[in-house]
Design goal:
- With about 160 residues, the chain is mainly alpha-helical.
- The protein has one domain.
- It has 2 helices and 4 strands; from the N terminus they run H-H-E-E-E-E.
- Strands 1-2 form a two-stranded antiparallel sheet.
- One of its GO terms (cellular component) is type II protein secretion system complex.
Length: about 160
């Protein structure tokens, strides 16, 4: 009487091959996930920096009142979302620069707000040693990790 089925050796070979295939796919999945987070970081940085520049341009164009002695950059990121009254508009409608503050995708502390997840650089500080101040000239990631391009996220 002939029985059909797999032998133990055939089953073991199939499991080893499956393990090798899955083991080689894991690093590819990790790189893909990191690349997606990097794309999100680039998009979020661009969005915030674009809003900061639009605020500065509105100040330069006289749409937003500038206090003498200040740089003209927003005092914080929240004002970009809350909006600023337009003195030229008869209905005194606000000008908004962001719908919401995006979160740094590499922020590890879940208790931080979206605004707190970013490092802020004032106009008075240098690129080499960014420091917060009276305004927000630029934002950067607080992550100490390095990107796939070997550049620290803080320098993006």
């Amino acid at each position: 009487m002939k029985q059909s089925g797999f032998t133990l050796i055939e089953l073991m070979v199939a499991l080893v091959l499956l393990a090798l295939i899955l083991g080689s796919a894991a690093p590819v999945m990790q790189v893909t996930a990191k690349r997606a987070k990097e794309q999100e970081l680039k998009r979020n940085l661009w969005q915030i920096r674009d809003a900061i520049d639009a605020y500065k341009k509105a100040v330069e164009d006289g749409v937003i009142r500038k206090i003498p002695g200040q740089s003209g950059y927003p005092p914080n990121l929240q004002i970009l979302v809350q909006g600023v009254e337009n003195p030229r508009d008869p209905k005194k409608r606000k000008i908004y620069f962001l719908r919401s503050i995006p979160r740094d995708p590499f922020a590890t502390d879940a208790e931080l707000s979206n605004e707190e997840s970013w490092g802020k650089r004032s106009y008075a500080s240098s690129f080499e040693e960014p420091a917060a101040g009276e305004d927000v000239y630029d934002v950067y990631s607080l992550s100490s990790d390095t990107g796939l391009n070997k550049q620290p996220y803080k320098e993006w």
